[in-house]
Amino acid sequence: MALIAAVATVVGAALGAIGTVMSTRYAGKTQDISQHDHWRRQSRRDAYAAFTVSLKKMQSYGNAAFDDWFHSLPVTGDGSTFRKLEHDVIEAQAAVTLEGPQQVADATEEVIDRMRDWAVGIYMSCFPINRPTDSEEPTPDERLDWAENVVNWREEAFQDSVRSFHDICRAALDLRSGRLEVATQDS
After folding, report:
1. What pLDDT is attached to residue 150?
2. CATH number of 40-173
3. What is the DSSP letter of 76?
């Protein structure tokens, strides 16, 4: 009887030790996955934020120049600085594209397309190098027409694409299931 009790004790201890080792190993693996997921989320968040900040800098610069032009003031800034800010946005987009997921990368493409449409309006309005040298300065009515029909609608489309990008980014950062499903305006 004592032998059976001793064997049972040894087997119980062995099973307990194996269970503890397996449980610890599982917990460690789960923690590694959790830490990696946190790191991935933070990397994505940083890329999305850098893209958004670069967009805001470019937009602020362009809007300040456009406001000056619209009010017939000397334009603050210059085309080369505006182009540098545009280049910064493109660089930030590269990081977002690498970090993904694909829906976010696609959203940056839409933002870039709308940003370029808007930027053309800013270049044509504000920076003389982009206008023919023999062109006359526009009248106040022509400025208003240009502002309403070119720059404002382009900026609105640009802003809509940025809002959509932010919505998709939030969904991607809240992603837990492994698949990003974002409701689009078409659905």
Report:
1. 72
2. 1.20.1440
3. S
